[in-house]
Amino acid sequence: MVTAYDAMEARLLSGAEIDIALVGDSLGNIVQGHDSTLPVTVEEMLYHTRCVRRGLDGPFLVTDMPFLSYNTSQKEAITNAGKMIKEGGANGVKLEGGAEISSLVRAMTRAMIPVMGHVGLKPQSINMTGGYKVQGKDLQGARQVIADAVAIEQAGAFAIVLEGIPPDVARAITSRLSIPTIGIGAGIHVDGQVLVFHDLVGWSDRPLPRFVRPFGSVGLEARKAVLAFSESVRNHSFPSPEESYPETAIPPGEILP
Ligand code: KIV
Ligand code: NA
C-alpha cells in the first residue's frame, strides 16, 4: 500500500504493482504543511480522493477518515464515510482506533462500507499519548495493541494497519488475525507494508524517520532540475530556437510601427 494525494501519483501507482492506494490524512503534513494530521477536514479528504480517483486504474482506493469525522456519532461517521465513497469514489475508508471504536466499525461494515483499521501509533491521538511514540513496548502496552487489533477484526474490518510497534508485537498480531496486517514502523512480520509516497521516492527536504527507506532520490533530482533551469535562463541558453516557435515571414522593421 502506498499513499496518493493526487491524480499524478495515482497514475504512477497504477503501473507499479501496488494493491492499495491510500489517500492518507498525512497529506496534512506533506501537502498542507501542518505539523500534524489534526487540522485536515472531510472536505479536503474528499477533494484529494476525487483527484486520486481520476488517475487510479487498478489498485483498491482507501481514504482516511480525518480527526473528529467519525468519533462524534455513528450517524456522522456513516455520512462522512458515505461521502468518500459516493462523491469521492473511494472503495473503503480507514479509521484510527481499537476496542473503543469496534461498535462503530461494526455499524459501518453493516452499512456496506469496507473499513480498514489502524492501531499502535495513531497520529490523530498525539495529544493523548504525548507525541509520536512507539506503542506496545511493555507487556501491558503490547496486550492493549493486540486486544485492539482483535477487536477491530471482530468488528468486521477487512485489513488493519499496524503503525509504530515492536516487530514481535506485530508478529503476534499477524499470527492471531486472519485479515491482512499492513505495517509501517512495525518490522517484517506482517502481511504487507505501507509507506508515504513522498518518503519512499525520496521526495523530502527533511531527515526521514527510522522506518522509512527512500527507494529513490526524487527530491534531489527535482532540486537539480530547478537549479539547471534558473542557470539556463540567466545565461540565455534557454529557450533555444528549437524550443521556440518559427519566426514570422513579416519583413524586419514592419513589426514595429
Ligand atoms: O496517513 C497516512 O499516510 C497513513 C499511513 C502512513 C498508514 O495513515
Ligand atoms: Na493516516
UniProtKB/TrEMBL annotation:
Q: In which pathway does it act?
A: Cofactor biosynthesis; (R)-pantothenate biosynthesis; (R)-pantoate from 3-methyl-2-oxobutanoate: step 1/2
- Its EC top class is transferase
According to the UniProt entry, its GO molecular function terms are: 3-methyl-2-oxobutanoate hydroxymethyltransferase activity; magnesium ion binding; methyltransferase activity
Q: Which cofactor does it need?
A: Mg(2+)
A Gene Ontology cellular component where this protein is annotated is: cytoplasm
GO annotations under biological process? methylation; pantothenate biosynthetic process
Query: Where primarily located?
Result: cytoplasm
The UniProt keyword set, sorted, is: Cytoplasm, Magnesium, Metal-binding, Methyltransferase, Pantothenate biosynthesis, Transferase
Indicate whether Ribosomal protein appears among the record's keywords.
no
Residues recorded as binding Mg(2+), renumbered to this chain, are D25, D64, E96
Q: Which Enzyme Commission numbers does its entry carry?
A: 2.1.2.11
Co-factor binding details: Binds 1 Mg(2+) ion per subunit.
Q: Which reaction does it catalyse?
A: (6R)-5,10-methylene-5,6,7,8-tetrahydrofolate + 3-methyl-2-oxobutanoate + H2O = 2-dehydropantoate + (6S)-5,6,7,8-tetrahydrofolate
UniProt binding sites for 3-methyl-2-oxobutanoate: D25, S26, D64, K94
Looking at the Swiss-Prot or TrEMBL record, what is one Pfam family this protein matches?
Pantoate_transf
Catalytic residues per the record? E163
- Function of the molecule: Catalyzes the reversible reaction in which hydroxymethyl group from 5,10-methylenetetrahydrofolate is transferred onto alpha-ketoisovalerate to form ketopantoate.
Q: Provide the family line.
A: Belongs to the PanB family.
Q: How does this polypeptide assemble, per the annotation?
A: Homodecamer; pentamer of dimers.
Q: Which NCBIfam families match?
A: panB, PRK00311.1
- HAMAP family in the cross-refs: PanB
Know the name of this protein? 3-methyl-2-oxobutanoate hydroxymethyltransferase
